[in-house]
Amino acid sequence: MTARPRNARPWIEGAALLAAHHRAIPARRTLNRRSYPVSPDVRFALLRAAPEAKPLAFPDLNALARHVQRERGRQSIELVDIEDLMFAGDADMRAGVSVYALDMGGDRDRLIGHCWIDGLGQDALRRALGRNQIGAHTTKAAA
Fold first, then answer.
1. What single DSSP character describes residue 114?
2. CA-angle at 24, arms to 110 and 112, nearest 5°
3. Where are the beta strands (DSSP E) in 1-107?
4. What stretch of H or E contains 117?
5. Nearest to 67 by CA among 47, 41, 50, 87
6. Which residues, 6+ apart, have CB-to-CB distance to 97 below 8 Å?
7. Measured between alpha carbons, how far is 38 from 55 in angstroms, rounded to an integer?
8. Mean pLDDT of 27-38
């Protein structure tokens, strides 16, 4: 019996194994929720999934909700309260809401972004999303 070399890779990679069994790949333990500085008068902002992307500022919660609705398309979403959101220059962490798009199986497909909504929780964002739904395309009915 021969010994396996120390640097030999296992036969099945972890990500491929999870994908083969329709399991989502676990999120990294350190999520980057730090961003560029924003103006102190900004009350509603979205930190996009890419850490190098600048945050998007919105005039009100409804504008932020409309942006999230456009980003999600027809996918379901999951809202998760977070307490470690930070813009550059902040002394303390802020509370916010992470928005994830879900696949057909209900697993997280992609991160839309982390929302700063002036200290409000996911219930306020959920109500705003309900008020600002993107309508389905309508077709003219034959008369």
1. E
2. 10
3. 34-35, 44-48, 56-58, 77-87, 94-102
4. strand 108-117
5. 47
6. 79, 80, 81, 82, 114, 115, 117, 121, 122, 125
7. 8
8. 54
Predicted confidence (pLDDT) per residue in 42-97, tens digit? 789 888 877 777 888 899 999 999 999 999 988 999 999 888 776 666 677 778 89
* CA–CA gap between residue 31 and residue 84 (Å, rounded): 10
Distance between CA atoms of residues 74 and 110, nearest Å: 13
Token couple for 5 = 């070399």
Structure tokens at 89: 């220059």
Q: Confirm if 83 and 93 have CB atoms less than 8 A apart.
A: yes
Rounded Cα distance, 122 and 112, in Å: 15
> d(Cα 4, Cα 6) in Å, to the nearest integer?
6
**Which amino acid is located at 110 in the chain?**
R
